[in-house]
Amino acid sequence: MQAIDGHTEQLREARATLLAELREHALIVGEVTLTSGRVAQYYVDAKRAILRPSGFAALSVLVADRVSAWGASAVGGTTMGADPIACAALAGGAEAKAFFVRKDAKAHGLQRRVEGPLLEPADRCVVVEDVVTTGGSTLIAIDALHDAGHEICGVVSVLDRLAGGSEAIERAAGAPYVALTTIDEVYPDRPDRGEA
Question: What is the CATH number of domain 2-186?
Answer without folding.
Answer: 3.40.50.2020
